[in-house]
Amino acid sequence: MIIDKKHSEDLEILGERIKLGESRKLNFNNARLFTGTAVEVPVFIERSINPGPTVLITAGIHGDEVNGIEIVREILTHKLNKPTRGTVICMPIVNIFGFINKSRFFPDGRDLNRQFPGNSKGSLASRFAYNFTKEILPLADFCMDFHTGGADRYNAAQIRIEHGNETVSQLAAVFNAPFTLYGDQIDGSYRELCYKMNIPILLNESGKSLSFDKSICKEALSGVKRVLAHLEMLSPKIEVPKVVEKSILIHETTWIRADFSGFLHVKTNLHDFVTKDQLIARISDPFGDMRHSVLAKNSGYIININQAPMVYQGDAIFHISTRTE
Fold first, then answer.
1. Beta strands in 189-287 (DSSP E)
2. What is the pLDDT of residues 40-76, one digit of tens each?
3. Quick one: which of 273, 278, 279 has its CA closest to 321?
4. Could you tell me if 132 and 194 are in contact, meaning their C-beta atoms sit under 8 angstroms apart?
5. CB 21 within 8 A of CB 8
6. Which letter does DSSP use for residue 9 in this model?
7. How much of the chain exceeds pLDDT 90, in percent?
8. Could you give the C-alpha distances from 176 to 28, 52, 70, 160, 322, in angstroms and in order?
9. How far is residue 158's CA from residue 247's CA, in Å, rounded to a whole number?
C-alpha cells in the first residue's frame, strides 16, 4: 500500500466538521459577481465509516476544459467517490468563473494554474489559489487532477509526473493511462504546489477544450477505478478494469511547429508511432498556390495534434515523443 494513512478524526473543512460515515455537499465561496451574487464552487465530500486516506479529485482549473469536468461528473454519477475506507473529496469545477464564460482564465485574465500557492492580497485568481491552498489542499493525502489540451490542441490520454518520485511513479503505473509523461514542474502550477507540499498527484490530460470525448473519458475512469481499488477504497461492487497494454513511458518530447500559415491537413492519428521523415501533415493556402509537406523530425509517438483547420506559421501542430521506455 503506497498511501496508508488512517484519519479517524472529524474532517474540518470550510467551517464544517464531518464525521466518519457522513456525506456533505459544501460551497467554497471566495468571490462575488459585480451584482454581489456569490460564486459558489461545489465541494462533494464522502467519508466511509472506516478510517483511511483522503483523496482529492479536481477538474476545471481551466474553465473551458470540459472533458476533465465530465470525468469527475462520471465519478460522482457512478458513485466511485463513495469509499469503503477513508475520504474522497471531489471538486468537478474549480474555476467556475471560466466555466460560466467558456474560458480558460479567471475574470482578471489570469491562468489559475500559474497562481499557486496564491496571495491573500493579490489578484482574484491569486486570492482564490491562496484560499484553496489554505483551506482544502492540506486535507489531501493524494490528488488526481483532470485537464485537456488547450484551444484546438487535442491531447492523447496521458498522466504527467515528475522524475524521481517513486510514490507518484507507482500510482501512475496503477492508473495505466496509454501514455505516462515525465516532465518538469511548471512555476505556479497546482502540480508544483502538491510537489512542494509532499502530496502525491496524478495529472491527467484527455482531449481538448470545449469538447467531449466519451471514449477518452472512459479511459480516465478506468484509471481512477484502478487507483481507488489499489488504495482499498473502491466498492467491491464496482468492477476494476484489467490492464490490457501497459502505459508507454515517455521521458522526452518535442513540438513540431508550422513553417507556413494556411490550412492544416493532418495525415496521422493520435497514439500513432511515426518514423523520421514520415509525412504527417500538409499545409496549403486557400488559393491552390502553396502545398507544403510536414515531415516527422524523429521517430516517436504522436501525443497531441492541433485540430484547428487553419494555422499560423509557428503554431504548435504536433507533440511527439523523442525518448520512450
1. 201-208, 248-257, 262-266, 273-274, 279-284
2. 899 999 999 999 999 999 999 999 999 999 999 999 9
3. 273
4. no
5. no
6. S
7. 92
8. 32, 23, 19, 11, 20
9. 9
**Joined grid coordinates for residue 164:** 524521481
Place of cell 479511459: 219
- Tell me: the pLDDT tens digits for 259-281? 999 999 999 999 999 999 999 99
Q: How many helices (H) and strands (E) does the chain have?
A: 6, 18
109-113, 152-156, 182-186, 256-260: range with lowest mean pLDDT = 182-186
Place of cell 488504495: 231
How open is the CA angle 110-28-225, to the nearest 5 degrees?
90
Radius of gyration of the chain (CA): 21
* Residues 12, 29: Cα–Cα separation, whole Å: 16
Confidence of residue 222 (pLDDT cuts 50, 70, 90): very high
Read off the C-alpha cell for 57: 479529485
Owner of C-alpha cell 477518452: 216
Peptide bond before residue 236 is cis, with ω within 30 degrees of 0: no
| HEC profile of 260-323 | CCEEEEECCCCCCEECCCCEEEEEECCCCCCEEEEECCCCEEEEEEECCCEECCCCEEEEEEEE
Taking CA atoms, 52 is separated from 47, 91, 153, 232, in Å, by: 9, 20, 38, 9
